[in-house]
Amino acid sequence: MRRALIVTALGFLSIVLVVPLAVVFVTAFRDGGVPYLRAIATPEARAALRLTLVAASIAVPLNLGFGIAAAWAIARFRFPGRRVLITLIDLPFAISPVVVGMMFVLLFGARGYLSGIVHAKIVFAVPGIVLATAFVTIPFVARELIPALEARGPEQELAALTLGASPWQTFWRVTLPTLERPLAYGAILCTARAIGEFGAVSVVSGHIRGETTTVPLHVEILYNDFQYQAAFAVATLLVVIALATVVGQRAIQFRQRRRT
Amino acid sequence: MKRALPGLGLSLGVTLTYLGLLVVIPLAAIAAKTMSLTWSQFWATVTAPRAVAAFELSLGAALVAAAIAAVFGTLVAWVLVRYRFAGRGIVDALVDLPFALPTAVAGIALTAAWAPTGLLGRAVHSVGIEGAYSRLGIVIAMVFLGVPFVVRTVQPVLAGLDPRLEEAAATLGATPVQAFVRVILPALRSAIVTGFALAFSRALGEYGSVVFISGNMPGKTEVAPLLVMTKLEQFDYAGATALALVMVVASFAILVAINALGVRTRRRSHQRKRAPAPEVVAPSAVIV
Amino acid sequence: MISIEHVTKAFGELSAISDVSLEIPEGALVALLGPSGSGKTTLLRVIAGLERAQAGRVKLAGVDVTDAPVQRRGIGFVFQDYALFEHMSVADNIAFGLSVRRESPHRIAARVRELLALVQLADLGGRAPRELSGGQRQRVALARALAPAPRVLLLDEPFGALDARVRAELRGWLRKLHDDLHITSVFVTHDQDEALEVADRLVVLDRGRIEQVGTPAEVLAHPASAFVAEFLGGTHLLRGDARDGVARFPALALPTSGSGPARAFVRVVLDHST
User: Quick check: is A40 in a domain?
Assistant: First the structure.
C-alpha cells in the first residue's frame, strides 16, 4: 500500500513537473553547446536580460518598503477597514496578468486616462514594464512579514519603548533584526516573480525587440518564430533562476531551523 | 486616542498611498472604461458566443484542474509527510518549482512535452487523445500550477495532526482506510478546500502557461484571458475591458471567499512548529 | 511618588478600571492584587504609559505624565513573559536602555557589569536569552529594566511563569533587592501569598475598582469588604522569631534560613474525607 502510494505520487509529479523541465534542457542543448551559448548571448537576449534586471531592481525594493510599512500597520494595530486592506494587498494575486497589463494601458496608453497629465512614454516603454512588474509583486513581502510580526507580538517593541528608545530606534534595533528571515524569503519570492512575469508585461511592452522585451518575452518571440532551440536555450536561464529561488528558500529555512 | 505603540500614522499612510496609486487607480481605470459602454453594449460583449465560450472553458477547465490538483496534491502531501524515502527532500523542493518558474517557460515546456511529437504527447496520441492544442492541454497546464497550492496548504495541517486520533480509531477497530476517511480527511477538509480554491483562482486568470499549449482556437481552446489579449491586439479596448471587469469581479469574490477560509488555515500553519516539511510558503508565491 | 487620580480605562465596551485613585509613596513596594479581570494589569500599564486612560491623570514625582509617551516617563517595566530581545545577548539586552541614550560604551559596560553582579548572573553576559532558564531570564529582564536607573519599577506578574521553588526563591530575592535599592516598585499578582510576603502595602482590586489599600497585616486582620475577606480568606497571620534555622511561632516551628522577626501565613484546609 505504502509503496503504491509513493509510486503514484512520484509518478504524478514526474509527468506533471519533471518531464516538461527535462524537455527544456534537452531541447536547449539539442544542437550542442555552442549554439546554446550563442543563443543566450545575442544582443537581443542581453538587452532582454538588462531590462528584466532593471525592472526587478526597481520593483523589488519598492515592494520591500511597502511590505514593511503594510505589515507594521496590519500586524500591530486594529483599525476599521483592516480586513479590506488585507484583501486589497492580496488582489494582485487574483487578477489575471492580462488584465493587469490592460489597466496600465488604459491609464497611460495613447488615449489613456492619465495621458493628459503624464506626458512621458509609459506603456510600450520601460516605465510601463516596471509598473506592471511592481504591481504583480506587491503581495509577496507583505504576506511573509505579517504572520511573522503577528506571531511575535508587540512585547519586545513595547519593552524597548519602556527603556527609553525612540520609535525609530525601536524599529531599527528591535523590529527589523527579527524580521531578517521573512524579509529574505519575501525578497527572494518577489525577485523570482519580477523576473518571470510574463502576461502583464506582454500587454504593456508592445513587444519592441531589443527595447521593451524582457527575458520571458524574448523566449516567446523566439518560440513564435519557430527558433525552438534558441527559445529553450534562453528558457534554461529562467529555469536556473527558478531553481536558485527554491534552493535559496530551503537554505533560509535550514539556517532558521538550526538556530531554534 | 493615542496608542502606546508608534508608527500607525506613517505606516498606514505609506500603505494607503502606495496601494491607492498602484492598485486602486488602475482598477478604477477598468471600471471607468466599462462605464463608457452602455449597458446593452456591455451585455452584448460579455454574452457574445465567443465570450461565453471562453468563460465557460475557463471555468470548466479551472474546476477540473483544481479538482485533479486537490486529489493528487493531497496524495503528494500525504506521501511527503508520512513516508521516508530516498530523495524526499528533493521531491519536496520540486513541488515549489511551479511557483518559482516563469509562466512562459512553463508554457513552452509543457507544450513541448505534450505536443504530438513530445515525450508525453506521443504516448497519449497513440491512444487517440490530443495532449497539446486541446482542452486537455489547458487542464494539464492548470494542474501544473495548481498542485503546489494544494500540497503546501495541506502539508502543514497533515504534519500537525495529533497521531493519537488515529491510534484511538485503531483501538476502536477501524481499518487504515476507515481511519483515513473518517478521522483524517475531515481534519484536512478545510485545508484541501482552501488549496482547491487557490488553485482554482490561479487557473482562472492564467495566461502565460496556457497561451502556448492551448493553440488559442476560438470557441474550442480559447480561455478568457486569451480572448482579452486578442481583443487588445485588435485595439478593441472597450470589449476587452468589459470582459476584464467580469474577470476582476469574479476574482475578487473568490479572493474574499479564500481569505475567509484561509485565515484559519494560515494562522494554524504558522503556529505549528513541529512540521517536518517546510512551512506554508505556497499561498504567497503565485507566479503567473 | 506615583499619583493616580480618578483614572478610568475601558477596552471597547469592557470597562477595565473605573474611577481609580491611588497614592504610592516613594520607596514603597506595592502589590496590585486581585483575580483575573480585576484591572490590576491595566492599571499597571496605564502607569507605564502602555495604555492611555480615557479619564483621569497619572503623576510621577509630582509631574503630570498622563499625555507623555512611554519612552519619556522614566519607568522600568518587567513584562510577564520578559520580552527579552531574542536576537541580542544578555549583556546587550541590559545595555539597551543606556545605548539608546547614547551613553559612552565605557560607562555602559561598567553599568552592565554592575547589574549582572546585582542579579547574580555575572558570567552569563555573552549568552543568548534562549540559552537561559526561566528564572535567569526573569533576572535579565529585571536587570534590563533597572539599567537606566528608572525612578519607578513596574512588574507584571513577575513570577507567574516560573515553577514553585524558583518562585519562592525569587520572591525573597526581589524583596531584598528592593530593600537595597529603595526604588518605588509596583507589581501585579493574583497570588495572595506572594503579595502578602513581598509587599509593604497591598492594593486589592476587584472588577476595576479598589477594594482596599493597606499593609498585609491590616488587610488580613481588617478586611474592608466581603470580597477582600474572601479573596484573602482563610489565611492567618502569625508572628514569631527565626533563629538558627528555625522560625518559632506560637505552637508552631518551621525550618527557614536567616534570623530575626518572622511572619507565617497559615491557611487551614479541610480534608473532605469521611
Answer: no
Quick check: B82 pLDDT over 80? yes
Q: pLDDT at residue B251 above 90?
A: no
Phi and psi angles of residue C210, each rounded to the nearest 5 degrees, phi first: -85, 125
- Tell me what the mean pLDDT of segment A229-240 comes to: 90
Instruction: Give the neighbours of chain A: at least 3 Cβ pairs within 8 Å.
Output: B, C
pLDDT value of position C99: 86
User: CB contact, 8 Å: A255 with chain C?
Assistant: no
Q: Which residue has the cell 510558503?
A: B281
Do the chains contact at B100 and A232, CB–CB below 8 Å? no
Which of C48, C87, C96 is nearest residue A160 as measured by Cβ atoms? C96
Q: Is residue A121 part of a domain?
A: yes
Q: Determine the length of chain A.
A: 260
For residue C79, list chain A residues with Cβ-Cβ distance below 8 A. 155, 158-159
**Strand-strand pairing, C184-189 and C29-33:** parallel
Residue among A12, A90, A99 whose CB faces B255 most closely: A90
Structure confidence by residue, pLDDT tens digits, A164-211: 999 999 999 999 998 988 899 899 989 999 999 998 998 888 766 667
C215 and C252, same structural domain?
no
Task: Give the domain range for residue C271.
Answer: 234-274
> For chain A, how many structural domains are there in total?
1
Q: How far is CA C197 from the centre of its chain?
A: 12
A166 close to C (CB below 8 A): yes
| Residues in chain B within 8 Å Cβ distance of C51 | 4
Terminal-to-terminal C-alpha distance of chain C: 54
CATH number for the domain harbouring residue A155: 1.10.3720.10
C-alpha cell at position A209: 525587440
For residues C57 and C144, state if they share a domain.
yes
By residue range, what is the domain housing residue A116? 47-259
- The interface predicted TM-score of the complex, written ipTM, equals 0.86
Across the A/C interface, how many CB contacts are shorter than 8 Å? 62
pLDDT class of B280 with cuts at 50, 70, 90: very low
Asked whether the beta carbons of residue B1 and residue C50 sit closer than 8 angstroms, the reply is no
pLDDT of res. C112: 94
Closest CA to A134 of C74, B95, B30, B19: B19
Chain A residues touching B36 at Cβ < 8 A = none
Same domain, C253 and C165: no
Whether residue C132 sits in one domain with residue C110:
yes
- Residues C163, C257: one domain? no
Report whether pLDDT(C116) > 90. yes
Integer Cα distance of B278 and C108 in angstroms: 41
Domains and CATH numbers, chain B: 8-37 (no CATH), 45-284 (1.10.3720.10)
Number of domains comprising chain C = 2
Give the full edge-to-edge strand order of the sheet including C55-60. C14-24, C2-11, C55-60, C63-64
**Does residue A17 fall inside a structural domain?**
no
